[in-house]
Amino acid sequence: MLSVPRDRAWRRLFLAQSIALVGTGLATVALGLLAHDLAGDRAGTVLGTALAIKMVAYVGLAPLIAALTHRMAPRALLVAADLVRAVVAMALPLVTEVWQVYALIFVLQSASAAFAPAFQSLLPRLLPAEEDYTRALSLSRLSYDLEMVLSPALAAVLLTRIDHPTLFLGTVAGFLVSAVLVLRTRVPQAGPRPEARAAGFGDRATRGIRLFLATPRLRALLPLTLAVAAGGSTVLVNTVVHVRDDLGRAARDVPLALGAYGAGSMTAALLLPRLSRRVADRTLMLPAAFASALLLTALAAATRLGPGSWSWPVLLATWAALGLAESAVVTPTGRLIRRSARTADLTSAFAAHFSLSHGCWLLTYPLAGWLGATAGLDGAALVLGAVALAAALAARRLWPAGDPARLAHVHTALGDGHPHLAGARRTGAGWRHTHHFVIDDLHDRWPLRPAGRGRPVRVPRRSGRPTMGA
């Protein structure tokens, strides 16, 4: 059974996140009904555009907001984001035009693009122990999965007593309660170092992305996320078509299929804390990405055969397995980022991942829908399976099998007496030492060989200035 970390500050933040998620789930249901009121049979177009705006805000704004707010205390940033989202949710029932929905959704999702990376960056500060942090990541994943199940059910119950515009008040309440809980939480500060304050906006905005591109395991995380998005988009976009049109089943079976996907994801989240003590992240995440490709290919073959008495249980099993594989990739992601960045860079790193990962979904969402409509469900599954396979192969190539945290390297540009060289050994090439290696102001290039294998790689600083300014 998954145990809960004992840290009181983390528990309050986790409760704040969970309550805000329930509020967001209510808003999703209410937004669909609002779109129907405003646009009638064009409601699907309105919702599709709103989702596209959400993804564009996530992809484009997360690094920019992280750069703009780099001097804000984490608690102040979280509270500000919650208050902005509460105001927008309060305004949504008052709109009378579709363009107003789009404008408010953009503001709402911009605030979410500020909240999510800041929240993620606080977890490793609150829970320095690896086991506690892993459990926290699994619980966070569980909260997202449960929100997919509980929020629609809660909305259905509430709609028997209230009209749908009133549902937005539940969203407002969720964000306000979240803000209060954050205000009552003592969180650690991680302000920029003195030499980092002079860094320009462009440098801060691209810091996290440069960190990803320079770190092998983080470069591999991008195609891994693409493999997850290929499977997840197939489920979220084409489930209703598989169930209603291909299998000819009732509308009530659509949430059952989505529930199977969520159940698989929750199962992985429950198992991962214990499994991660025995299995390295690479050993766990790469097979899960290959499994997504295999499952999508099998789905294409089953769909091509046509419906039969076996089709419904096979679809449920496939959806559950895809949820399991997705969670096996997504849940350990926070540990990889934590391992690959210093504390002061965590917000930038999580913002970069937030942006880049949603870029993958921005690609696969329309691809799943367009292929399903033009090439058929089997064609869509086959193409997305090929995307997942190519992504898994790329991740395997980018992520070296030997990936220790401590790496030997030689500094050639640091002067004698530099504080970083304490304990280093003088060699003909420069100063050699071994430590936990991350890309930062003093290390702008990744060593090519792990410690203990051949000569260590030189780590110069180009132009005499940091290339990873904060």
TrEMBL record:
Q: Where is this region: Disordered?
A: 450-470
Q: Where are the transmembrane segments?
A: 12-34, 46-69, 166-183, 220-242, 254-272, 284-302, 314-337, 349-368, 380-399
User: What CDD domains does the entry give?
Assistant: MFS_MefA_like
What domain of life?
Bacteria
Q: What is this protein called?
A: MFS transporter
| UniProt feature, compositional bias: Basic residues | 455-464
The protein's UniProt keywords, in alphabetical order, are: Cell membrane, Membrane, Transmembrane, Transmembrane helix
The upper taxonomy is: Bacteria, Bacillati, Actinomycetota, Actinomycetes, Kitasatosporales
